[in-house]
Records
---
Amino acid sequence: MPAVTRLLRLGAVAVAAGSLWLCSMPSAFADKTNPGAGSIGEPGPAADTSASGEREGDTLKSGVGGVIVFDRSKNGTGKSAGTVTSSTSWTPPACYYAPKHTAKELDAQMRQVWESSAPSHEWALKTQNYFVNGQPYKDFNKDKEGEGYWWDSYVTEGREADPASQECDELPFWVDEGDAPPPNRPQAITAETLAQLAYAEIRVPSTEVDLAPEGATKVNLPTWAWLDSAEFKPVSVTASVPMLGLSATTTAEPVSLKITPGTDDALTYPASGQCEIRNGRIGAPYAKGKADETPPCGVKYLRSSGEGSYQLQATVTWKISWTSTTGAGGDLPDGEFGAGQDVVVQEIQAVNR
């Protein structure tokens, strides 16, 4: 990464005991709060909106994840809840541009850098021309104080080591309030970007399925599999940039369950092992009198597991969609979340008379 960008992204300079080091942006940009979360089917705590993401005097205050505020009150919770993984190679963005500084704020920070011995003369001259001398900005746009923001790069939480996080390496740029960011900054935050970042915050309930018969199942007898419909409902996360009046809600809705028996010596119902959701339910609970029926979702083991067990894998596919305050919306790649469980399979014991 060029020295210019590297220094700007690291931010303010601190000098102590004759030593110079670069530290991250001031704490005003990272006012951490505890994310809210709610149980499926139960009222959750208030949305995570304590991080204002707004302007306070000459400072931009932002919260969890930078300038973005997440409302996780309709997300899945519990020890067994987990993160959906894209069914394709797609991932949410590792970095993005969004409002980060007021004019006075960036002025103060850059002058602190220039007055230190850290930057080279060439670097200092280039950035002074860029921010002060009209190439293209004059005096940090302080004549527009209160009429816009300096946009700068953010790295998505948890993606700091991802090489893709280094792609947002442009100098900060000014955007007038109410205007769209320049088209030559494709990583500038949009409603769809927010939806993609909310995707990474989605948590879905466990995929451990109910099986019948309970305990050990038998060779050549169908084992019924189903998921509790009371817990198996859509979840959503909303991501917002309050200072832009922009938000997007990403929703995950269960659509199917994939059963992988854990051995080749088994048959699945249906044959594909893909159990579709019907009437808000995946599979059907076993009931007395259904022993001779074919389960809508299940497995039949053809060989005993001996003294051990088979590891049945149950993976739910979630359809991911989004809506936004701009009216834009659409689909994102399906997400998957799976879990394994032990299944003991025994031979049927015949009784000779």
---
Amino acid sequence: MLLNANDSTAAEALRRRGAIHGHSPQHRQSTRTLPLKVGTRGSPLALWQTRHFLGLITKVCPLLREVKAFEECVIATSGDKVQDKRLADIGGKGLFAKEIHEALLDGRIDFAVHSMKDLETELPPGIVLACALQREDSRDAIVLGPSCPGAASEDPYACLPQGALIGTASIRRQSQLLHARPDLRVEIIRGNVQMRLAKVRAEGGPQASLLAIAGLKRMEMAHEAAVVLDAETMVPAACQGIVGVTVRADDVELRELLSAIEDRNAACVSAAERALLGSLDGSCRTPIGGHAQFRPDGSLQLTGLVARADGSFLLKRKLWGAPADAAAMGRELGESLRRDSPADIFG
């Protein structure tokens, strides 16, 4: 049976049968009983994203809600377990998806919801990105501790005192911040949104930090942002603010279902940004920014950035083209940045 989110007859058939047929990674036919299991990390933001996704899919096909077709499955990832080191030092950002994708491949879950910026550029064999949801605000924001003045200024970094200690585990943010303000100091700060805010407020903690405004908005904490940095001042991470859903490559039914809720604009900009990352072969040790957006004339603008972690080198370039060429634009811009950057950037 082909399950189509726009076809109530298919959903009714799903309810009557109580199961749908799919294929295991070994391509043997198997029977999946309801509910379909949705893998997710356990942070408040990850759970919000998963429930938002389920709200979209059941809105398109209400019968899926009536038959209680979905079940959340919280999976602890290696990236969540180690909080005192940079991701680059423990295996890279793929650690936020490793255990989830293992569960997907062995059939313990049926699909998985991710912050797309945490996904590896190359997904494991047998897993595909099935859909991208509408992008939230892609920008970064500064959150301030009690010792920072927070005064309004044309300079977005004026709120940070001379020599201030900034908490972040992102070398992309660190490199751009230190390039603009070499007087600042940086220490590692990781954890979910709530934990990072608590560390900034704590006595003896960092005086400020940087967070994605998308996460603050989704947690109804946008008021915590003292300054929202435009994408020119601080080039965002590739796919920041986009939620992505992965499935097994041979699961035609779920891929059909998810195609009904994909946001075409998000799919286009994420294709450009992920191709940029792939061309640069970026890891968590390489400060890379990537941000695509539509211009008023309908064309696509892609900004790419590479830097040294200490801010001593920073190269930023733009490319414009047709949305249909999004992936090709990403590869072209990535090759240009790689060609004109020092070799140690990618070491």
---
Amino acid sequence: MDHSGHGMTMDLPPFTLGRGLEWSADPFFLVACLVGLGLYGWGVVRLVRRGDKWPVGRTVAFVIGVLTIALMMCTRLNDYGMVMFSVHMVQHMVISMVSPILVLLGAPITLALRALPTAGRGRKGPRELLLMFLHSRYMRIITHPAFTIPLFIASLYGLYFTPLFDTLMGSKPGHIGMMVHFFAVGLVFFWPIMGVDPGPHRPGYLMRMLELFAGMPFHAFFGIALMMASEPMVGTFENPPASLGIEALSDQNAAGGIAWAFSEIPSVLVLLALLFQWYASDQRQARRKDRAADRDGDKELEAYNAYLASLNTQGR
């Protein structure tokens, strides 16, 4: 197989799922995934050793999230994605809309804050620096919907419908940077909406749902635009290798269908997570009120009953 510089394969056989899932690791993403899993595992082990609990579900979500990135970037899906618009679109959708959701459900920042040691009075260690970063003006800006929603939209239209996409696909660093960008955009978009970790922008649950549905339709419109196009719209995929046995326009139509369909998947996942978090929040609030009532003899109820009694007395 001939790899030209940044992994473009000009003699790939026709795509099948079996061929796409063969091992073909991108070194950058392989190392990044292993480091991410290693650091997360270190945090969980550190908590367990000191007797703290960490939800198994969060660990499972994080691991699956990282593995979805490895699946997209460390198999021949990445090779086929360099020459097939449809396969590239699967990579884009998974890395920007599935992997971030699963990683966020793993609450890696919460784990880091609990696992990292405090630096001591007057000193700043990794934990203190992380807290400063979380509470910085920069974080307030990049997690605000006025920033995240336009960025989410621009990552589609501003990339694929301009020469920027072809430029990035023309080099290995550009391709890596583009995939990292997809993942980062997904993180900052979904974090304020359904992330478990603390953040500077955390609106009410109804507003979070509105933020979710404000961005999702643009993915569907993007997919429809690709499906309705009468000619190839992205230069990189205008002339697929003859060995693939595909036609550029039909492959672009397939890519549009994938983008359109994927707009529904994260919407359902995030909506379910939001509803569960909303229910859990209400339950916690109810338990706090019950404990407060137990401590003070339910003074709030007594005061209300006294108020009703006074009204009854005044009405006589």
